[in-house]
Amino acid sequence: MTRSGPLLKDMVRRLVGTPSVSSTQQEFDQSNSDVIHLLANWLEPLGFQIEIIPIKGKAGKSNLIARFGEGSNGLVLSGHSDTVPFDEHLWQSDPFSITEQDDKWHGLGSCDMKSFFAIAIEAAIPFLQGSLARPLIIMATADEESSMCGAKQLIRANVADAGFAIIGEPTDLKPIIRHKGIMMLNLRVEGTSGHSSDPALGNNAIEGMHRAVSELMTYRDELEKTHQDPRFAVSIPT
Fold first, then answer.
1. Less packed terminus of the chain by CB within 10 Å, N or C?
2. Would residue 82 show up in a list of annotated catalytic residues for this protein?
3. Which tens digit of pLDDT belongs to each residue from 32-69?
């Protein structure tokens, strides 16, 4: 295959130079569309079938699914296209430019995780000269750093038809085969006013919250007995 696109370092430079901050604070939040289209423009000439999926209810946010080859049970190389917000006063260089120092490339998203897309494309090129036994899918999602809307939409649509996946998050160059999940709930306890002379006339929200927290701590103890995985440094749910 004759290479027509940019080299790895230029891909990293252009990805870092394309802003795609995601944030729950509207004043910092940005579209990721420019990054998605940049990746699509590199992958399509290599023979990938491109699908850009707008995120429902999120203007300017999209997922990218780039597929090479036919069939199912293939390999997904997946990452998120957004970065965290930044405070330019705390940076010693331009966040949207690659700065080299001590054999490291510094720039917003250079590690987490725009460089992964450049590396994935670079690694894939030698295998694109013929047909693959199973498809190769490069996937880029939106808003991992904030709402997770990109990954949530992919799960609801059930589009990731693959048998294997590599998620390019930075892990200190150590292969990680599993990751703890997270569940968040809001618990609100409302009381009714009363008087200390006759507490039965009211309903103490503090006491109600105490009972709720006590039940949660009991449930935590139960989980510690039933859910353990020694492959984690902390083997129990936290």
1. C
2. yes
3. 999 999 999 999 999 999 999 999 999 999 999 999 99
**Cis peptide preceding 113, ω within 30 of 0:** yes
Catalytic residue among 29, 143, 144, 145, which?
Answer: 144
Domain positions in the chain are: 8-167, 181-238
The tokens of 78 are what? 């997946």
Structure tokens at 100: 């080299």
Could you give the C-alpha distances from 12 to 9, 93, 122, 155, in angstroms and in order?
Answer: 5, 16, 11, 28
Model confidence pLDDT, tens digit, residues 188-227: 999 999 988 998 889 999 999 999 999 999 999 999 999 9
Q: Does domain 8-167 have CATH number 3.40.630.10?
A: yes
Q: Which of 82, 112, 143, 145 is catalytic?
A: 82
Q: Report pTM.
A: 0.84
Neighbours of 2 (CB within 10 A): 3
